[in-house]
Amino acid sequence: MTRGWRKYIDFNNDGVFDPTTELAYQSTSASRPARPLYRQCSHPPATAVSGTYARMRIIVQETTDPTAITPCGTYPAGETQDYKVVFANPSSDVGVTGLAYPTQTSCANDSQVVSITIHNFGSVTQAAGIPVTTTVTGGASPVVLGAICKDSILAGADAVFTYNTSFATTAGTTYTLCQQDGSDRRSQHLQRQRYAGCDHQPCRGGG
């Protein structure tokens, strides 16, 4: 037999598990192991308030179609468990939140510099050094910029970091810049830059 499982979190604390907006995880069906171990991480929405609680429901059901598992209802075989979870900001939590430079009005040049915005989401000052990497694609070959940001960033504050290394750009070419920091929570943030006064818009990131 196969089993699937779903995890719901009542993020808005209205007492109802919304099957769409509050679905925190959905598994794929797999052969039933002798001693199953379920391990999965979920990221709360930006509206979650640190220090508040919410109810989480985990449903494990004998099924070949995990999408059929609903937050409430009956099933022939399985188990439902509810837990209380608390939203908390880790003390050390930093991430790249955007591309500060170049901008949509930047023109092509032989020595294009890149600046990124780093935000301290944690509760303490970040001063140990943050490894950051930006990969630039769209040109003849990818360009990888890597460095350690040693700026001291207060809790809740931003810092703009500029790489020492530059790269050459061509007018009318679209470049995709992917910023990656050392945190697991915000692993990638993408920005698209078209030089010579063209569009500048966010792309979809991963992590």
Short description:
This protein has 207 residues and is mainly β. It has no helices and 13 strands.
Please specify the SSE layout and strand pairing.
Elements (H helix, E strand, L loop, with lengths): L1 E8 L13 E4 L3 E2 L21 E10 L15 E9 L7 E8 L13 E6 L9 E8 L5 E7 L8 E5 L11 E8 L6 E7 L5 E3 L5
Antiparallel strand pairs: 1-2, 1-3, 1-4, 4-5, 6-7, 7-10, 8-9, 8-11, 11-12, 12-13
Task: Report the C-alpha radius of gyration, rounded.
Answer: 22 Å
CATH fold-type name of the largest domain? Immunoglobulin-like
- What is the count of β-strands? 13
Average predicted local confidence, pLDDT: 79
Order of helices and strands: EEEEEEEEEEEEE
What is the CA-CA span between the terminal residues? 32 Å
CATH class of the largest domain: Mainly Beta
Main sheet makeup = 5 strands, antiparallel
Query: Any idea what the CATH superfamily of the largest domain is called?
Result: Immunoglobulins
Highlighted features:
5-stranded antiparallel beta sheet, 207 residues, Immunoglobulin-like, disordered C terminus, mainly beta, 0% helix
Explained architecture:
With 207 residues, the protein is mostly beta strands. It has two domains: 2-86, no CATH class; 94-202, Immunoglobulins (Immunoglobulin-like, Sandwich), CATH 2.60.40. The chain has no helices and 13 strands.
